[in-house]
Specification:
about 290 residues, alpha/beta, Rossmann fold, nine-stranded mixed sheet, 9 strands, about 35% helix
Length: about 290
């Protein structure tokens, strides 16, 4: 069962849209879900200077994070999104930025979607050790949890501020961003579609230190992909990945709930152009975009 707070908040969101309360087929265990709880209502996204190209508006954004800063990135959307528009949140990989997915966000916005691509708290952090992946166990763990919360709040904002249909939400996560993307989708029953690109099944690496294992072992991606259903899952793996072993993607595919699909590409870790085209086509189909 989900925690009481999570249930109440989700019911409130959906009730406002006229539907019944959503549900996961196999919800995340309450003691694990509790790690990611935070006040879900009331956050507002601020758009900076807007530019319009080919009928699509792009703006730099900021909205409150549960950490000491604001979430930054871009929103890409139609000038006047439809009331039942689809919404997508993108999470880049390690060393990346929100701008990495702006091109794909434009492709979806031209079809009517509202797309949000955000900087991870690892990228935003003023702490050099956090940015370089050299921080101590506790602040690193706290930043990982913050990353999941930032994604969940992004989904909330798409629904409450932009009028996105809560039944037409998707999350895309690449490499290091696959972990928070999977956890957010497992925790939020509104997510209809999830794409995991070249991600690790066991980001923790099965640490030997008990404290580290207690923290990181409990948020490994492979332990949450069986909580996704009824979310539709697309996994994209690289045949010649020099960063992520094939066995990790195969582990995710084997553990994930149905419906799921894994596709392999003749590429290195960046997956290549074909994967990008297929990713957009899959999202268009799953979200019913025109």
């Amino acid at each position: 069962m989900r925690s009481t707070l999570l249930v109440l908040l989700l019911v409130a969101f959906v009730a406002g849209c006229g539907g019944g309360p959503p549900a996961k087929d196999d919800p995340v265990e309450p003691e694990l879900a509790k790690r990611f709880e935070f006040p879900r209502l009331g956050a507002t996204l601020r758009e900076g200077e807007r530019t319009t190209r080919k009928g699509v508006v792009q703006a730099e954004i900021a909205y409150p994070s549960q950490g000491p800063d604001n979430v930054t990135g871009f929103i890409v959307r139609p000038p006047k999104p439809a009331k039942d528009a689809a919404g997508v949140v993108f999470m880049h990989g390690g060393g990346g930025r929100a701008s990495d997915f702006v091109g794909e966000a434009h492709l979806l916005a031209r079809r009517g979607a509202v797309a949000l691509t955000i900087d991870s708290p690892f990228t935003r952090s003023p702490d050099e050790a956090i940015r370089e992946g050299k921080a101590d166990v506790d602040p690193t763990y706290e930043t990982m949890v913050q990353n999941v919360q930032d994604l969940l709040r992004g989904l909330d904002i798409l629904v409450t501020q932009y009028g996105v249909d809560p039944d037409r939400l998707a999350v895309v996560g690449y490499s290091m961003g696959a972990q928070p993307a999977a956890l957010a989708a497992a925790l939020d029953p509104r997510v209809r579609a999830l794409v995991l690109m070249a991600g690790r099944a066991l980001p923790s690496g099965l640490p030997s230190d008990p404290h580290e294992r207690e923290l990181f072992g409990a948020i490994d991606t492979v332990d949450y992909v069986d909580n996704l259903a009824p979310t539709h899952l697309l996994l994209q793996g690289a045949e010649f990945d020099s960063v992520i072993p094939r066995s990790e993607m195969e582990m995710l595919a084997g553990a994930a709930s149905e419906p799921k699909e894994i596709r392999w590409y003749q590429s290195d870790h960046d997956l290549g152009e074909q994967a990008g085209r297929e990713r957009i086509a899959w999202l268009v189909d799953q979200l019913g975009l025109r």
